[in-house]
Amino acid sequence: MIRKFLAVLIITLFVQTAYAMEDCIISTDGKLTDISIEHNDIIDVYPLITIMNEKNTLIVHPLKEGKTSFSVLKNGRDKKTFNVKVTPSNTFIEAVEGFEIMPLDNPPDNYEYELDIPPEISKE
Question: 104 versus 13: which is more confidently predicted?
Answer without folding.
Answer: 104
